[in-house]
Design goal:
The complex is a heterodimer. By secondary structure, chain A is of the alpha+beta class. Chain A is built from 8 helices and 16 strands. Chain B folds into 2 domains: about 30 residues; about 100 residues, Immunoglobulin-like. Chain B is about 30% helix and about 35% strand. Chain B has 3 helices and 9 strands, in the order αβββββαβββαβ. Classes of the chains: A alpha+beta, B alpha+beta.
Chain lengths: ~350, ~140
């Protein structure tokens, strides 16, 4: 079984975690022998003055060694830094009242077809921002030890058609342990992305998951106005609108006082979306129109591609040709009949 | 009677159109199944084989070109149920590449030539973890 060879060469410690969410928020994790799980995650996506702020945290349970994740981004980030200490926890409290270093170097050495545009280390996370098509990023990931699941090529293309920017993160569980970071502790990451239109990747959450696997995640949005969302969270589509109201002043003040959160505006609209879906159900992303115009983008929701490319097979072409011939024939027939049966002017002397 | 003539013409024309369209549809539907081929290209895209069904002849060398358009590695293992089961359970850790057992690295092409010695219906499958369940399965009809 030659298939075992690549895995062996990559090193037994390099598992694959393909993930994450827009906010890195939530993500799918593929670990060795199913020993590692990415727990339910919380993501915060704030949009103000044309800048999208993603704050999320990775939490892992079980396993050891290194894990990687890939997150599609709506644009090139201007910064990737450690997130605030309590932003996510404070958001949860608002809506749900209480009740590897060597590997990093190796990543830098192999960029494959993708362009490495930023590298940052945050605690036990080694983060690389990539620019490239789905094949480029997939090849980069494969060469850097990510064991991509079979749905990865299609999912990476799904995102690259709209935004060729990806964030790859490697979490070194052993390094985290050495740092005194317990399994289950989250590492908050704050990504700042100037973009005219915010969106939150959702489909990526189902990456590598079996058809009967569930995806659980919470996404918080803070926008200047009440946002219009596409798809609309209906519950039946795997998304539920758990909260939608003017953000309280105490929440905004608390968030603003956290590290890197000085951008929080003096007022805003807080939205919480709970994702609870079968993995195959998540075939879309979440488009957000925070302008007040109420027109979220179908392209950003992944419901249509930027440029419509229609592929037809030979049989379809023949059928279309036959239909055209038939239509022309009918038209000619009608015209002929009209000429024959049309009113004749009776001329009488 | 010009009006009767027109009706006759209209009826005849409609019948001719219906007959022509029907004949075309029958011709399309009744196309014979694929003849055995001795040179086949199988494209791998989004972790699926295309075509997912091939027909090959017995006793003649068949050249199969495997084009992997995905940025991940794939396998193409062709054989009967016993062969497939052996690969599923993975008792053979490493072995050299065989004509019927190919590894196609990401974004690459492999060519293999096989002479099938008896009629059968075999499957070709990628046995990398999760790939068969995702749909990387094809059927090879080996015919005289």
């Amino acid at each position: 079984m030659p298939r075992r060879l690549p895995a062996a060469l990559l090193g037994a410690s390099m598992a694959l975690l393909l993930v994450a969410g827009p906010a890195l928020a939530c993500g799918g994790l593929i670990g060795p022998n199913g020993a590692v799980n990415l727990l339910r995650t919380t993501t915060f996506a704030g949009y103000h003055d044309g800048v999208e702020h993603y704050v999320t945290a990775f939490q892992f349970q079980g396993g050891g060694g290194a894990f990687g994740s890939i997150t599609p981004l709506p644009g090139v980030p201007s910064s990737v830094e450690k997130g605030g200490d309590w932003t996510l926890q404070r958001l949860i409290r608002e809506t749900d009242p209480p009740a590897p270093r060597a590997l990093f170097d190796a990543l830098a050495a192999q960029s494959a077809g993708a362009e490495v545009i930023m590298q940052v280390q945050i605690d036990a996370l080694d983060i690389t921002v990539l620019k490239g098509g789905g094949a480029d990023v997939g090849q980069w990931a494969s060469k850097n030890g990510f064991r991509l699941p079979p749905d990865a090529p299609e999912v990476l293309d799904f995102y690259a058609k709209r935004s060729p920017i990806f964030l790859a993160a490697v979490f070194d569980a052993d390094a985290a342990k050495e740092r005194g970071q317990a399994i289950g502790d989250g590492t908050p990451v704050h990504i700042t992305i100037p973009t005219p239109n915010p969106w939150v990747p959702i489909r990526i959450l189902g990456l590598g998951k079996a058809a009967d696997a569930r995806v659980d995640a919470d996404v918080y949005l803070l926008t200047d106005n009440q946002p219009a969302l596409l798809p609309t969270p209906t519950g039946s589509n795997g998304m539920t609108l758990d909260n939608s109201q003017q953000a309280s002043q105490s929440l905004l003040d608390d968030l603003r006082s956290d590290r890197g959160m000085g951008w929080i505006p003096s007022s805003g609209w807080l939205t919480k979306i709970a994702i609870d879906a079968d993995a195959p159900q998540l075939s879309y992303d979440l488009a957000v129109d925070a302008s007040g115009q109420g027109v979220p983008s179908w392209v950003q929701a992944g419901l249509t591609v930027p440029v419509q490319v229609q592929i037809v097979d030979q049989t379809t072409t023949i059928r279309a040709l036959l239909a055209a011939i038939l239509a022309i024939g009918v038209l000619i027939l009608v015209l002929q009949l009209g000429r024959i049966a049309g009113p004749r002017v009776a001329t009488q002397a | 009677m010009p009006r009767n003539r027109a009706r006759l013409l209209l009826g005849a024309g409609l019948i001719a159109i219906v007959v022509a369209a029907g004949a075309a549809a029958v011709a399309l539907a009744a196309r014979p199944g694929p003849a055995p081929e001795t040179a086949i290209t199988i494209e791998i895209k989004y972790s699926h084989f295309n075509p997912s069904a091939i027909t090959v002849p017995v006793g003649v060398p068949v050249t199969i070109t495997l084009v992997n358009d995905d940025p991940i590695d794939h396998e193409w293992i062709i054989g009967d149920d016993t062969v497939q089961q052996k690969h599923r359970t993975g008792t053979e850790l490493l072995h050299p590449v065989r004509p019927t057992e190919q590894v196609i690295p990401a974004l690459s092409t492999r060519v293999t030539t096989i002479t099938f010695d008896h009629p059968a219906v075999w499957k070709y499958i990628c046995h990398l973890p999760g790939h068969e369940a995702y749909g990387m399965v094809g059927v090879a009809s080996i015919v005289r």
